[in-house]
């Protein structure tokens, strides 16, 4: 009997120690996925050391088990992504306004680093269109890439180093949480806006313009295109449109027949080769078709001395580095996560950040700029049958051969071919279907997405992303400042189901009582709202109910959904209680959770209302209130008689 | 029968229209207290116009009912607060480094405006020590009050105008929500730090120093005090300590015998009078005791032309105006709310903001600086028996008489007396008991409080408040990024109570099922955390349970506490479902709320898992799962046989 009733009492045990609460808070905040779970289970210290090694250097786990059969798969996939890496490397470097050779360098060193430290089997390392564009547009505010290419390049490396350091720091401090604040809606809008801008910028290449704007806003770009109509070259445009049509056709083939993905994967490389041959034999340059120009043979030179921390310029690489670090992480982690889910594996975002960070830090010392795991390239890698991170090594070896022997060949690549490759690569980023989906399911997410999109195309890439994140944060704060709460009613008299009366209009109230369900933490940002709202519920209820017979005598607060409370919240509970007291209404608490009880007990609120006013379930509370309502009426009746 | 089972089904009705959701969202966000509630109930349009008038000009409601008996109470209270207004006005003006007469002006016009538009009966209008100090310290960065007093004064008026406009705008836009972000912890720390600084600054007055620092940080102030020991005047210090002892004694009397509150209320006025008489007869100035100096007779001059919007200086008054607007609102609204709760009345914070805003706008045109409803003065007003806002009018009339006839008398007020009055007034703001209470109940709130306190005393008032609010916001975001969630267990087999197994260690799991309770909205900032956490729960559970017999087949998610979900959240549900699918685990949703269903239906998630996987109560869900577990085993058994 005692055991039974004990079971149904609210637990009033004294709060856990600060250290316990703090430790569990830190653990939930920074280690929600418990990465050392397997490690802790292992008793042998030798095995533990090995597990730790495997954790920090994933290559140490798969490499010993590696065999020639796996290599065959990885070799084919590696060749495929290398054929994509060459044209994309050259193109995106042009987008970043740096020498195309840097794009090739960037597909050599970083993939090797990732192969050692990265944990995803399918990610293919490479440069990103959006980041290339963002680095360039941010740095151009300080230094012109045309007038001062060396300084500009130095700042690009500096931005890469800053990105890498930031990524490494975020990973080590397990602050992957910050990347969560870039919502899908923000990324969809940002990518769409950036892709639009990039496509427009390619009009320069397509029309063979020599003068162009350094601004990225749509107005400036269109003005630049149409103010130099005299520079338009029809030859260039014809070649560009042919290449573009070819590339888009291969994309279409891939979509219709996913097995033919390799057609679209090698198409850019084919374009580059055809373009080079055509330009070489047709002396294209004389006919208004610009070519890439001299590319030096040889491996990545060291770039320590190019890093530039001059106070005059440093703000630009810092801004570019910070923003691109987040964008690169968001893309790289999202793709890694998608593959993990598809294959029912686990990812640790923070560990991936460390790998990306190391890759960019080493990259910045070896003439590479920002790299990540681009979505398109990684998807090709996966489809081509990649089995381990060895594909990145194969790609790097291909790049090594290109850099040592073939680089000068690409001198003849027509710029218009690169423009066509860029357009066909980024046009898929304009995800209008996703935007429509957002519109259908969540108008606020759609607003966040559109803010990023229009911010990017009309103001600047930085501003666009910041406005969008700002709106998303305001919404996050509104969620906490205006938590949902509702009045509960009984769904059917025979059962003890109490649900939101708005959602289930059949739910009926209990005479003499008002049952409210509160959600979310109660604390400074929402406590005065909750007070106003609760008092308004009482006022409304008093208005409806017959003042003679069924006035409210109990307000029951279901705290089951209240996950925590702070001191302001406790004070507001006191205020509400005082106000109710004046109205002769008793406050009943139902099912307060652990973290809430740990504040209510030292805050003396439980002492104030008494332990008898705290119940474990709605039923118990209503039963007890009904009983005392009845006895109250009987007493009144006796007095009246 | 149909009716019965209908009652227990989850409602799958199609989402409400966007307009409906948007309207109710706006209403909850901006009008949580439903200020026009009484207004809407009224059918007659004439009565409605009158109610609207009463709402916007509260004086129109109480003035017609006003009578001589009420006036007697208000008159006495008004005289009492006027006797407090004179010394405080002079003192705080000195704190703001402006002429003492401005302090007297500020107790004349603003109270009249408040009497018309303000809705609180007990608030007494006056200047605030903390705001005076903050305005001065912010403006001093741009202009010296000693070298250029007229320009400085102009900027003080400009800051006041900006404060007023901001307060008015916040009130009209019903953005009272922003004031909620100044938590009690922040205000406690800020007030304590400011009071400490103000007390230290008074060492200048107490020791009669002539040279002093314009910085507010504790280090600068102490250095200034001790680097000019040659200027110390023992006469001044003796007089100061005597006054201070007297004032603190009257405070002590008030605390011991609350009925004698008037002793401490008139004590500052008594000090000023005694000080004036003493200084006049003893020629105090010749003995090292500085006096206030010339005060002109006459009413507030207009100050339109003093307002200064020069681009060179404007950033300082904007900063000062914005921060003091919030501080003044926080203090004024908090005190109004306290009185309302004590007297079981309702307050509308947004309406009060409009009154404060109008009062400061008009004030800035009539040589007044920032005013609000200071806590101490309002408490005196309440204790002195104030019945309506007429007390403010009585005080204003007293100030009128003082300005017209008595101002020059206060010329002889010794500065040291003012310092003693300031110290005794602000020393009560150092609320170490509250800080200790915060420490006991909530370590994070204590950290927020200490950040404000040390930020204010070691860096600057602005920085202190910003760091503190910043930490509080980070916590608010952490709440949404890391929502609490728990595993539920059955408390006793006979009853259908499912509670947190951590809080109630007696709760037992259900074989083959994992019951999880999620709290808070699910959206971009926390969705990937929730995915990781849910997958970890599954992993941990699979580890514990015997893999042969009782492997998990169902994961039941109790969504009762999930108040909303965004598109990222829905996508993550898909990811979790996909992952579980691979592990052959079925996902069951329990009691999704209205706002959540409205996202899950168009997001096609309900289609994905099927309506049969959504239950209204934990019991129903467990019942159904148990049944299918049983039938599954039977089938297996048959197959095996």
From TrEMBL, chains A, B:
Residues 503-625 form the STAS domain. GO terms for molecular function: secondary active sulfate transmembrane transporter activity. The chain crosses the membrane at residues 70-86, 98-116, 151-175, 181-200, 232-249, 261-281, 320-341, 353-372, 384-406, 412-432, 444-474. It is a multi-pass membrane protein. InterPro entries: S04_transporter_CS (IPR018045), SLC26A/SulP_dom (IPR011547), SLC26A/SulP_fam (IPR001902), STAS_dom (IPR002645), STAS_dom_sf (IPR036513). Gene3D superfamilies: STAS domain (3.30.750.24). The keyword Membrane applies. It holds the Pfam family STAS. The keyword Transport applies. It is found in: Membrane. One of its GO terms (cellular component) is membrane. Keywords: Membrane, Transmembrane, Transmembrane helix, Transport. It comes from the Eukaryota. Its main location: membrane. This is Sulfate transporter 3.5. It comes from Heracleum sosnowskyi. The lineage of its organism: Eukaryota, Viridiplantae, Streptophyta, Embryophyta, Tracheophyta.
